Amino acid sequence: FTKLLIKYREFGEVIIANCEGKESWRKRVSANYRSKEKPFTQEEEMAEMISNEIVSTFKSATKIKLINLKGIENRDVIASLSRTEGNHLIYAVGNIYKQLVDDNVGYYNISDAKIVRDQQKETFHSLFMKFLMGDVRHSVKSIMANSEPSPAFVKHMKKKHKIEVSKENFFHLVSTAPHYIEQYALETEKNPYRLIGMNSGKAKKIVVDHGEIKALLNNPLAFRNYKVNKQLYDLRALPEIVETAIFQEYMKLEIPNYKELAAYFEEKRVPAVSNDMSTLHSFLM
After folding, report:
1. How sure is the predictor about 24, in pLDDT bands with cuts at 50, 70 and 90?
2. Are 79 and 187 found together in one domain?
3. What's the first-to-final CA gap in the chain, in angstroms?
4. Within a domain: 267
5. 49 and 125 in contact (C-beta within 8 Å)?
6. Residue 157 in domain
7. Does residue 179 fall inside a structural domain?
8. 136/250 same-domain check
9. Please, what is the Cα angle at 12 between 9 and 15, to 5 degrees?
10. Which candidate, 172, 194, 176, 190, places its Cα nearest to that of 118?
11. Would you place residue 86 in the very low, low, confident or very high pLDDT band (cuts 50, 70, 90)?
12. Non-local CB neighbours of 46 within 8 Å, separated by 6+ positions
């Protein structure tokens, strides 16, 4: 299942890049591309149908502006849009998907995603927030899984902090320390536990106090680019009061009907280990 593409860049408009039958926007403007185009496979037809269902879901559940790229005349329009200051969600299937890859547009493919072992038994709310904020490591599959932390991570945290707590509570206890937030990155992808902050494979620690976070929340531009070293904060490491403030701002700025959309994904959640097209189709339908 390689033809359905999801791309999200923090905040902004949703762009629907959809085929119209067997004719793509690329085919309309390039004779060479037209001559190379092949008929849709059954898999591509299914992917397009699923893409249309996603479009319908977002239209009914959010007030985000949707941009449909059918019939676009500019061959580089998607790549150009992805380079603007605005941030976009792109759904694409078939040859449009292939062209996005050829144009070096950053993308996230559901079926190619690696399963992330979550460091705590997270709430659906926190996972969904990270998906909306563009942290693809914690996007659709992890949202659907809502998995428990790995035993290795639990053991590591207990040893480091000399505490004995349940799997459900240990990370909450650590992350709600009164005056700081600690985020760790481990040296290798082989470790079963990993927090944001990877930099050339070397471990590092980032300390952020509440004052800095408050300053970000009070600055709309900074809030929209809520990052550390060009990477998104891991919301699990934020004290509850800060996460609540972010959530409230997000509600005002971006998706008034957040709860309705969240409820939809909550209801349709399926196991993250599934790459089966029929299962994903059932989830999206």
Report:
1. very low
2. no
3. 16
4. no
5. no
6. yes
7. yes
8. yes
9. 80
10. 194
11. very low
12. 277, 281
Report CA Rg, the chain: 20
Domain, as residue range, for 205: 124-254
Structure token digits, residue 13: 């408009």
- Give the pLDDT band (50/70/90) at residue 66: low
Are residues 5 and 80 in contact, defined by beta-carbon separation less than 8 angstroms?
Answer: no
Specify the DSSP element, H or E, that contains 10.
none
In a shared domain, residues 108 and 128: no
What average pLDDT does range 136-156 have in this prediction?
A: 38
Residue 13 located in a structural domain: yes
For residue 231, give the DSSP letter. E
Q: Which two tokens stand for residue 143?
A: 């949202």
- What is the crossing angle of helices 94-102 and 42-61, to 10°? 90
Residues 39 and 139 in one domain: no
Based on the fold, state whether residues 217 and 133 are members of the same structural domain: yes
Q: Are 135 and 234 in contact (CB under 8 A)?
A: yes
As a whole number of angstroms, the distance between CA 229 and CA 206 comes to 10
Query: Could you tell me if 187 and 101 lie in one domain?
Result: no
> Count of alpha carbons within 13 Å of 88, Cβ hemisphere only?
24
The reply to whether 198 and 231 lie within a common domain is yes
Find out whether 127 and 143 touch, Cβ atoms under 8 Å: yes
Do 40 and 48 meet the contact criterion of CB atoms below 8 Å apart?
yes
- Please write the tens of the pLDDT for every residue from 192-241: 222 222 232 333 333 333 444 444 445 444 444 443 322 333 444 444 55
Same domain, 106 and 157: no
Number of domains observed in the structure of the chain: 2
Cβ(221)–Cβ(170) under 8 Å? Answer: no
Give the global pTM.
0.26
Extended beta strands in the chain, E state:
5-8, 14-16, 66-68, 89-92, 108-109, 181-184, 205-208, 227-228, 231-232
Query: Cα angle at 70 between 65 and 72, to 5 degrees?
Result: 100
